[in-house]
């Protein structure tokens, strides 16, 4: 089963677990019912921003949503770590953590030059979030504040606000995102 099909099943099953109609999920996320139906049918490859909105409304982190679609275990070997590419920004997300839903989730992201990806505040309402830049430069826009982070810099996010990850340079940026529940 490919990741789009697995994501479709996870979104649909989690919506059912939370006893939400497609309309209720659409109201909570601002995503159209038609798009939710396409995602749940596996007819649309969702963007990172869309998955972020859906995951927040479904009570999961983006990492947990994707990891549920990918399966889990106790050891996460690099060669077997699932990756996902955002069709809009081209960033590549690697699930580093061995299992979803644990106390700590680690995600490695590689963002192409001049790319950006934005997320709504409700993506982060129940999470603590730290970003550690491994290579390159990352501009993290947190509400109206722009944080310029270089290799070795680490940022703890404040209260949930709309945010944007932006690569301002001509080379890729690679960073690690560490997520825990609030």
TrEMBL record:
InterPro entries the UniProt entry points to: Cro/C1-type_HTH, Lambda_DNA-bd_dom_sf, RmlC-like_jellyroll, RmlC_Cupin_sf, TransReg_Diox_bact_type
Domain of life: Bacteria
Any one Gene Ontology cellular component term annotated for this protein: cytosol
Assigned keywords, A-Z: DNA-binding
Transmembrane segments: none
PROSITE patterns documented for this protein: HTH_CROC1 (PS50943)
Protein name: Transcriptional regulator with XRE-family HTH domain
Source organism of this protein record: Actinomycetospora corticicola
């Amino acid at each position: 089963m490919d990741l789009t099909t697995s994501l479709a099943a996870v979104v649909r099953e989690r919506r059912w677990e939370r006893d939400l109609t497609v309309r209720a999920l659409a109201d909570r996320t601002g995503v159209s019912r038609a798009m939710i139906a396409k995602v749940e049918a596996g007819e649309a490859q969702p963007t990172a921003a869309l998955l972020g909105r859906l995951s927040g409304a479904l009570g999961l982190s983006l990492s947990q949503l994707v990891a549920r679609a990918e399966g889990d275990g106790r050891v996460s070997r690099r060669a077997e770590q699932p990756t996902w590419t955002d069709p809009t920004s081209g960033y590549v997300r690697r699930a580093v953590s061995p299992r979803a839903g644990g106390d700590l989730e680690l995600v490695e992201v590689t963002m192409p030059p001049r790319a950006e990806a934005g997320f709504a505040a409700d993506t982060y309402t129940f999470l603590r979030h730290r970003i550690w830049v491994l290579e390159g430069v990352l501009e993290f826009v947190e509400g109206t504040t722009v944080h310029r982070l270089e290799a070795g810099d680490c940022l703890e996010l404040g209260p949930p606000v709309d945010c944007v990850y932006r690569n301002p340079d001509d080379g890729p940026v690679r960073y690690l995102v560490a997520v825990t529940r609030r």
